[in-house]
Amino acid sequence: MKRLFFVVFGILFLAGCSSGNNNAENKIVAQINKYKMTTDDLRYELKNAPYDEIASLKTEDGRKRYLDGLIEKEVLLQEAQRQGIDREIGFMKSIENYWEQALLRILLERKSKEVSNLIHVYDNEIEEYYKSSGEDLPFSKVKNEIRDIIKQKKQTEAMNSWIEELKKKSYIKVDENVLKEAEGL
Known about the structure:
This protein has 185 residues and is mainly α. Helix content is 69%, strand content 5%. The chain has 2 domains: 2-82, no CATH class; 119-171. It is built from 7 helices and 2 strands, in the order αββαααααα.
């Protein structure tokens, strides 16, 4: 078994050092029933290992325990599929909800980054804000904080405008009668 780990991690090391990602080097590390875990699969799992396990992956025993955990996870996933859990409505709804949340998060992060790069805060805006705020601290001490507040406000306004524009471009119809009936739910 020790030899297997040296071979597996030696392959990973050499594959990581190679200039390309050649599928011919994507060998099978472990097979669990019909599932074949490749070096790419293992590399992905190692790259995304929980922070508290990273140190243990530097030891042979740690790598063995981690691989055993991956094998155990795959055995359990296969059993869940065998029992049909992956086809149950509750499971599919939870996946749908997760998928929607992840999709929304990525979309909003991207748009927020785009908007952030376009937002500028000018010195006269900072000075106006300072004067109207009644702040007692010297301007030089609060200037950066005020800049951040104004920038955040502008970003929020830009994001809200973008969302409203998307809504205006969309066909949206609300049936008020059905809505009233649903209020009793």
